[in-house]
Design brief:
3-stranded antiparallel sheet; alpha+beta; 96 residues
């Protein structure tokens, strides 16, 4: 039987825990379309900018989103293609 590093197992569990919050899932789904600033995300999801910023901090910390600054505006996007694949595969599973 293959053994796994306990720290890596905990990291994986925490990674999947990110997807347990509907607000974070909604943000990730909107970001599938491309990068957006906090204001545009808040408008798209009918939420406050503060609530969006709070979740984006967590998503960034977990390396699911990245940001790019353009002047005073910060734009957010999915960190990489793996995130899109995880979301797509999860939705395919739900729709089966």
């Amino acid at each position: 039987m293959k053994t796994y590093d306990e720290d890596k197992m905990e990291d994986l569990a925490l990674f999947y825990k990110v997807f347990a919050d509907v607000t974070r899932i909604r943000i990730l789904f909107v970001l599938l379309e491309g990068e957006l600033c906090v204001r545009d995300l808040a408008d798209a999801l009918s939420m406050t900018q503060s609530a969006i910023s709070h979740q984006l901090r967590f998503l960034k910390q977990m390396k699911l989103v990245k940001n790019r600054r353009d002047g005073k505006t910060v734009f957010y996007s999915l960190a990489d293609g793996h995130i899109q694949n995880i979301i797509s595969q999860g939705m395919e599973h739900i729709l089966e």
